[in-house]
Design a protein that fits this description.
The protein is mainly alpha-helical. It has one domain (30-248, 257-475). The chain contains 18 helices and no strands. It has helices spanning 7-24, 30-61, 63-88, 90-99, 106-126, 131-138, 142-157, 159-174, 178-201, 211-235, 237-241, 252-284, 288-324, 328-355, 357-362, 379-412, 416-441, 447-470. α16 packs parallel to α18 and α17 runs antiparallel to α18. The longest helix is centred in the middle third of the chain and has 37 residues, at 288-324.
Length: 487
């Protein structure tokens, strides 16, 4: 028994300090997680800034345009999502090859992603004309259908730039070089925000294009990011040392390796966006107030989850690198630490949504004196409903933090097929079919679909958590074994 005055308390303090230090230092500790994750959080924050300001400008230009922007933007992203999901897996290959100390395979992994991106851009350009029929089928109010079609067409026509930008950023991220990714995205935001304002409102001598101007500014931002990533690569001695440019050929074996982990990830991403698209389209059948309030709530929600998506990418990088090194213990340590960071962020932002919904919603109020289209609802009705919906956002954000981080861990290990199957079951069985029934029957009003959305996120969190703690991801082999030289 310790009889020294204060001895027991001192021992507990020493133990707590040791635990904190062990979590902070070393591979997979808080320090490394933040070094990789913070630039990615800032990068995703810049994406959030572009989307958020885009919708603020549109909301101040016309209520109909903000009502049209979110469903048409989500629908365009739905077509893009499958190809984007495959492109993000370039980071998994790069991280695992880098972890295995095989830099000669990094260049071929990058170039298969580049070829895939170019092919994807051609396909998406051909799908740009499908927006009109899609929104007519959705049964949205007539005053927003034409706006939705215009926004969808321009975004989808230029979507190839976003896929290529994702591939190039995945190369840098996979190597753990997340600061260049952050700088490029900040530069893209610095161009996009003023260009957005100019083309939407016709400022500084630009034509007033409204929602079409917003789409053009978004495409211009993605194209700028591509050019900046290429410029950084051309200036990088490391890129030349890895023979990145000499590897600019189609390599079927490496392409199949990318597709083996990328196709399930692409289908998973597609299903996730399909579920959200279906949700948005279904809510649109309830009326303009419900549609506008939901779209504004989703826009504000992006402040919560996109920075955590940056942490999820960091999880994939650290898990991928550790798996390449044959160290799943480090992968688990990194995941556990990033999960704590994610939940802290979600808790803080969710508290803001509950305590200060009014100022956030007021950002989307139409500017006095701007012409309103026929059928635009009163913003006071949208604001009142938005306060309720932000409480749902605060509720499911903590659950979503678990979903996003464990998804990143499973993806970094190459366990993408399970993620795809979980998304398929949850999106259809928990979100779309129940939400459709509630909208058609009028059961629960706006609360019915939003309860389905919360349940959908909770089911995914549970499934990904069980899979991660089951440990099967530890034994997955993504990259080929290195061939031993003869003799």
């Amino acid at each position: 028994m310790n009889t020294t005055p204060g001895g027991e308390g001192a021992s507990r303090q020493d133990l707590a300090a040791t635990v904190r230090a062990s979590r902070w230092e070393g591979p997979g500790g808080y320090r490394e997680a933040l070094a990789v994750g913070m630039p990615l959080m800032v990068s995703m924050g810049s994406v959030t800034l572009m989307q958020f300001t885009d919708r603020i400008f549109l909301g101040r230009h016309s209520v109909a345009e903000i009502a049209a922007a979110v469903p048409s933007g989500i629908a365009s992203f739905l077509f893009l999502s499958f190809f984007l999901g495959v492109a993000t897996c370039v980071s998994v290959l790069v991280a695992q090859y880098a972890g295995a100390c095989r830099p000669e395979r990094v260049g071929p992994a990058l170039w298969q992603g580049v070829w895939f991106s170019l092919f994807s851009g051609v396909i998406l350009a051909g799908l740009a004309f499908l927006g009109g029929p899609l929104f007519a089928l959705a049964g949205h109010p007539e005053q927003v259908r034409g706006l939705e079609g215009d926004y969808f067409f321009i975004l989808t026509l230029g979507a190839g730039f976003m896929i290529l930008s994702t591939t190039l950023s995945s190369y840098f991220s996979g190597l753990g070089q997340t600061v260049p990714v952050m700088l490029v995205n900040l530069a893209g935001a610095a161009l996009n925000v003023p260009l957005d304002y100019a083309l939407i409102f016709g400022a500084w001598g630009a034509p007033e294009l409204g929602i079409r101007g917003a789409a053009m500014a978004t495409v211009a931002g993605s194209a700028t990011n591509c050019l900046l990533f290429v410029w950084l690569m051309l200036r990088s001695p490391e890129a030349r040392a890895r023979h990145n440019f000499a590897a600019a050929r189609l390599e079927p074996e490496m392409l199949l390796r990318l597709l083996r982990i990328g196709l399930p990830a692409g289908v998973q991403f597609f299903l996730d966006i399909l579920a959200i698209t279906g949700f948005s389209l279904l809510v649109g059948r309830l009326g303009m107030v419900e549609l506008s309030a939901t779209n504004i709530a989703f826009s504000i929600n992006s402040l919560t989850y996109l920075p955590v998506v940056g942490l999820s990418i960091a999880t994939s990088i650290l898990v991928g690198r550790s798996q390449g090194q044959g160290r799943p213990d480090i992968a688990q340590r990194a995941t556990d630490n990033i999960l704590r960071l994610s939940l802290a962020w979600m808790w803080a932002v969710g508290l803001v949504f509950v305590l200060l919904p009014g100022p956030l919603l007021a950002l989307f109020e139409t500017t006095p004196g701007m012409a309103a289209l026929a059928g635009d609802p009163a913003f006071a009705d949208i604001r009142d409903m938005g306060v309720v919906l932000l409480r749902y956002v605060a509720l499911y954000s903590l659950i979503d933090g678990v979903t996003i981080v464990y998804f990143g861990a499973l993806k970094g290990a190459g366990d993408t097929r399970f993620v795809m199957l979980s998304m398929l079951v949850a999106s259809i069985g928990v979100l779309i079919l129940p939400a459709w029934w509630m909208v058609e029957t009028g059961f629960g009003g706006i609360h019915g679909p939003w309860l389905c959305l919360t349940g959908y996120i909770a089911v995914l969190a549970g499934a990904f958590s069980l899979r991660y703690h089951g440990g099967k991801w530890r034994r997955i082999q993504v990259i080929e074994k290195e061939r031993k030289a003869d003799g």
